[in-house]
Write a structure and sequence with these properties.
The structure holds two protein chains of two kinds.
Chain A lengths: L4 E3 L2 E4 L5 E6 L6 E8 L3 E9 L2 E5 L6 E5 L5 E5 L8 E8 L7 E2 L3 E5 L1
Parallel strand pairs in A: 2-11
Antiparallel strand pairs in A: 1-3, 3-8, 4-5, 4-9, 5-6, 7-8, 9-10, 9-11
Chain B lengths: L3 E2 L4 E5 L4 E7 L4 E9 L6 E7 L4 E4 L2 E6 L4 E6 L8 E9 L7 E2 L3 E6 L1
Parallel strand pairs in B: 2-11
Antiparallel strand pairs in B: 1-3, 3-8, 4-5, 4-9, 6-7, 7-8, 9-10, 9-11
Chain lengths: ~110, ~110
């Protein structure tokens, strides 16, 4: 089975712009979660989608949003980018077993 | 407020010896714990997990121990191999939010040949 794929792998944006990141889960996985990794804060949960519905949400501002499509693919969007949004954004999919999430390689976002 | 803490940013061990990585948590609602390994430029890879109804889980060279009263878990790797060199993350979730993992900040393990 192919693993979790994320596109693009690298992205450079400037402050004030918006960005959309994409995640394709492992075939058959219906849960997709997003995490932000920064050197200072570590890995932090953004949100989780299951069957096109957001089931869980972390403590991030409303500038961070996401959605899931009927084929389980997911996108996350960050509007009005700030310098502090520079991070590695990781997507993880799960077959439904508690907590066992499989991560993609991440998208490295740099905000200038 | 950091609910999952890995107090050792780094650990260095000799090949063939035991590696012990530690993790503490503060949230009593956590009932499922996991360890992930991460290499540079890759996403975290699931290693092993343990439910709060157990105090030990073993998978090959990897064993996770859970001490609920102390809110402490540890990952033992025996014997350690150079390929084990990576950042190890401890993570936790609660029954009400199984898909929301709370991670520690990681421990860099270096296994020297």
């Amino acid at each position: 089975k192919a693993g979790v794929t994320q596109t693009p792998r690298y992205l450079i944006k400037t402050r004030g712009q918006q960005v959309t990141l994409s995640c394709s889960p492992i075939s058959g996985h219906r849960s997709v979660s997003w995490y932000q990794q920064t050197p200072g804060q570590g890995l932090q949960f953004l949100f989780e989608y299951f069957s096109e519905t957001q089931r869980n949400k972390g403590n991030f501002p409303g500038r961070f949003s996401g959605r899931q499509f009927s084929n389980s693919r997911s996108e996350m969007n960050v509007s009005t980018l700030e310098l502090g949004d520079s991070a590695l954004y990781l997507c993880a999919s799960s077959p439904g077993l508690a907590g066992e999430q499989f991560f993609g390689p991440g998208t490295r976002l740099t905000v200038l | 407020d950091q609910q999952v803490k890995q107090n050792s940013p780094s650990l260095s061990v000799q090949e063939g010896r035991i590696s012990i990585l530690n993790c503490d948590y503060t949230n009593s609602m956590f009932d499922y714990f996991l360890w992930y390994k991460k290499y540079p430029a890759e996403g975290p890879t699931f290693l092993i997990s343990i439910s709060s109804i157990k105090d030990k889980n073993e998978d090959g060279r990897f064993t996770v121990f859970l001490n609920k009263s102390a809110k402490h878990l540890s990952l033992h790797i025996v014997p350690s191999q150079p390929g084990d060199s990576a950042v190890y993350f401890c993570a936790a979730s609660s029954g009400s939010s199984n898909y929301k993992l709370t991670f520690g900040k990681g421990t860099l393990l270096t296994v020297n040949p």
